[in-house]
Amino acid sequence: MLWTTRLLSALTRAILHPLMPTTTALSAKLIFPTAQIVEEYYLPIIYTACRTCYSEQLPDQIWDKAVSRQVADEKQQNLVRKVMESGHGSTIEHVNFTFAISGVTRTLSHQLVRHRAGTAFDQQSQRYVSFKKRDGYTIPDTIAKGDLPDDLAGRFQQAIDDNLDLYGQLLQAEVPAEDARFIFPNAMQTNLIMTVNLRQLIHMSGLRLCTMAQWEIRQLFKQIRHEIFRVSPFFGSFLAPKCVPLGYCDEMGNRDEHCRIRPHRDTVMAVWEAYRGGELTETEGPIVPETSPFRPRPRRVPVPVAHDEPAGETMPVGHGEAPEAAIGQAGGSDRA
């Protein structure tokens, strides 16, 4: 009986809603700069910013050498990479990218415009645009392609269609578009122009390419990453989930580590504490330099004391170290 009901629901969806919208309309195209501009000027601009901070040369002199390739691209990239890895992010705020974004939902755009520093947005207005087409909305795959009971997918689409029909009737009744739009669902599609500097783009990508991000905005930033790679594989390589440069995942929702891109912070800290406590052994030489304050803590063992000193006093002793050798040395907690 259950399979019969589901079959009828599927047939109903196919007959009544053959063109159910999906997520394929989403698009992000880099409209400026061109690949030629990026290749010729963007790396020298950032290199000049980096080099100016650490050189007695005048900025225009540094620029002339960089843009004429008297300084090879590889050398410029090496400096830029080191400066970026050090966290000196202002140097990459000097270059911008402009994207034409279309077919995304209002659900996505509400997330996107939360990024403010280093970004500029202009979005299609629902006040000044009267939407004559009634198919500009997106239905998630979990609904459109899911095996849902009671024709929930069809009813979902019908509810949106009814809202849009009512929107049209309100316009015909001369209700202003700025008021008729109140009936719109979050599924409505919209278009934007976004300009963003490289520093902010890397930050946004770190958050939005994460597997914990909402699926639609992840699709958007996958396209954005592809567009940057198209004009510059060097700059595109910096667009990655935030766990990649961090070395660990800090998402609370991934404490079970169902995403395996990087270990969770809890795991990293547990291993570190075990190492610090001397529970782990370095089998192929020191992983942590001997001079690091994060080497394993010295064990604390009783040390014979003179009769005029309080009984039971202890002193930290290093692994395999005679008690006498430790006298007068700082303990592990002092080093840290």
CATH topology of the domain at 1-32 and 95-246: Gyrase A, domain 2
* CATH class term of the domain at 1-32 and 95-246: Alpha Beta
Order of helices and strands: HEHHHEHEHHHEHHHHHEEHH
Percentage beta strand:
5-15%
Q: Which regions contain 5 or more consecutive residues with pLDDT less than 50?
A: 1-19, 315-336
How many DSSP helices? 15
Computed Rg: 30 Å
Helix content: 40-55%
Description:
The chain has 336 residues and is of the alpha+beta class. Among the domains are: 1-32 and 95-246, Gyrase A, domain 2; 247-282 and 294-302, no CATH class. The protein contains 15 helices and 6 strands. Strands 1-2-4-3 form a 4-stranded antiparallel sheet. Helix 2 (35-53) runs antiparallel to helix 3 (59-67) and helix 2 (35-53) crosses helix 4. It is flat. The protein starts with a helix and ends with a helix.
Notable characteristics:
336 residues, alpha+beta, Gyrase A, domain 2, four-stranded antiparallel β-sheet, two-stranded antiparallel sheet, 6 strands, 44% helix, flat, disordered N terminus, disordered C terminus
Please give a quick description of this structure:
The chain is α+β, with helices and mostly antiparallel strands and 336 residues long.
Secondary structure blueprint with pairings:
Blueprint: H1 2-16, E1 27-32, H2 35-53, H3 59-67, H4 73-85, E2 96-105, H5 106-112, E3 119-123, H6 141-144, H7 152-172, H8 177-180, E4 189-197, H9 198-208, H10 215-231, H11 233-236, H12 243-246, H13 265-276, E5 299-302, E6 314-317, H14 323-326, H15 332-335
Antiparallel strand pairs: 1-2, 2-4, 3-4, 5-6
